Amino acid sequence: MQNIFDKQVERRNTSSLKWDVPEGELPMWVADMDFQTAPEILDVVMKRAEHGIFGYTSVPEEWYQAYVDWWKKRHGFHMQREWLVFCTGVVPAISSIVRKLASPAENVLIQTPVYNIFFNCILNNGRNVLENQLRYDGGSYSIDFEDLEQKLADPQTTMMILCNPHNPVGKIWDRDTLEKIGEMCFKYNVIVVSDEIHCDLAEPGTGYIPFASVSEKCRENSITCIAPTKAFNLAGLQTAAVSVPNKVLRHKVWRGLNTDEVAEPNVFAAEAAVAAFTKGEAWLDNLREYISENRQCTAEFIKKNIPQIMLVPSEATYLLWLDCHKITECSRKLCKYIRKNTGLYLSEGSQYGKSGEGFLRMNIACPRDRLYDGLERLKKGVESFTANAV
Known about the structure:
Blueprint: E1 26-27, H1 39-51, H2 61-75, E2 84-87, H3 90-101, E3 107-110, H4 117-123, E4 128-131, E5 135-136, E6 141-142, H5 145-152, E7 157-163, H6 175-187, E8 191-195, H7 216-220, E9 222-226, H8 229-232, E10 240-243, H9 247-259, H10 269-279, H11 281-305, E11 310-311, E12 319-323, H12 331-342, E13 344-345, E14 347-348, E15 359-363, H13 368-387
Parallel strand pairs: 1-13, 3-4, 3-7, 7-8, 8-9
Antiparallel strand pairs: 2-10, 5-6, 9-10, 11-12, 12-15, 14-15
Helix pairs in contact: 1-10, 2-10, 3-4, 3-9, 11-13, 12-13
């Protein structure tokens, strides 16, 4: 019997950002799955569409309860209803928070290599990017706490954006690590903005720890950005939430989101989120298994056919971090060459900070046939790149 995630869905000519590429190219770059969302969510959206009136929409009580119940059941953390504020997306929320809580020219710390849009959220709003580069030992990543403390201690540093699970390296930070970050940030009066959008995409049998759940200091000095969009492939519906336990911080965040006009849902946003968290659990568990199998297939293929590349072990997300240092130090050149010569469109590691040089990011949230197509193209591209000593 065919797995539902093996279904090939044509996405060209649908105004898809991911698939707006020339014919013959295979996009495996942006964090957008090639799977239809859960049938239970589709049913709710279709029913709402059939109503035929798409007026201004408020946030229903069910939306708050869905988040509270999901985090308690899935992640063992009891959020309070009043902590939650609706927003149209995690990125708009982070940008709004940066504008509201960090003054112009102050430092916002990020741990690179990290999601490239964090740079935009900071620089486009006139704040300074301060990098705490993660330590890479050739196989895994960890935090350079000495460097972190030195940069947090700078009075000009007022905010830290934490990525947990970490994109692109797929790291789930453990409790001790999170507690240490929380202690340092509390000590130096640095607010933590925790992007936890990938939390529901942990490997089967692996959990993530919400930053705010670790300690009172973590809870009272943090803002958490969460959403069903990555796990249930709903990014285009613009639905997310910000959880802020501290009453004073919450008021400032609420003011910022409303001032920036990113605190009101479209007609499908709240209902789709409620459906995901109340009806989509079984679908999500099957998805995680499928992605885990895709990750294993990728690891085996690379080990057998492209040994020059090392797949960095990951615990979450559907984004793989490929170490290509044995091939080249210039990930941009390699990425462009592979795309030009094979049509495979990956993300160059240098987008995620200087420490991303020599890496590629690959999205494996796709049917298995499409995955193997991508892997064969990757093999062909690397062989040609190496043979021609580009």
